[in-house]
Give the backbone structure.
Amino acid sequence: MGDIATKIGERTAPFEMAPSILSADFARLGEEIAAVEKGGATVLHVDVMDGKFVPNITIGLPVVKSLRKCTRVKIDTHLMIEEPGRYAAEFVKAGADMVSVHIEADPHIHRTLASIKSEGALAGVVINPATPISALDEVLNYADFVLVMSVNPGFGGQKFIPPVLEKLRRLKEIVRERGLDTLLEIDGGVDQQNIAEIVSAGADIVVAGSAVFGKGDPAAAVKELLDGGSDWV
């Protein structure tokens, strides 16, 4: 799988900042993306929801194709959908560099991860806040990254669930014990007040939505988060 620099690209901080466009102004999406790039974001997080696995409907393949044309940063596509194995590889073909699927939604997750990798992207597994780490026992070795949800998926602007930090710490230790280079990503309720603790707990990639796009100046918000998350080092 290679190290973090190989997987994601040149790091400008101890972690990668991944703004979530779920909270962006879609009428000005190109401008919003340019702003977060200027602020230092190296990953763009895209939430795909189907109204079945989660109680919301967002975007799909056409938007990812459009995003690929207007940004140079990595596109991280988080599939919150039923039957993710039917669509995962299609998102890579549309331009995604990273695709993650929920362990709770896919009974054939090894096959899905293999399909993502076969198209040349990083393959990730997602676990909800109430899903135990043990659910990853048989699949962790096959994942390039694990996305740990720190809110229940489906909507932006939710509050961070503090016990998830301990889950992140334990997962980091398991990755080390197995000698893996699996990246750990966290998504949900991240803000300037908790980002240092999140990075300290082991996050390599940090997703933030309303803390970036709800502050008036996305570029400044990304820089503030990067600076705040680097304070623990």
In short: The chain has nine helices and eight strands. The chain has a mean pLDDT of 92. The longest strand covers residues 43-49.
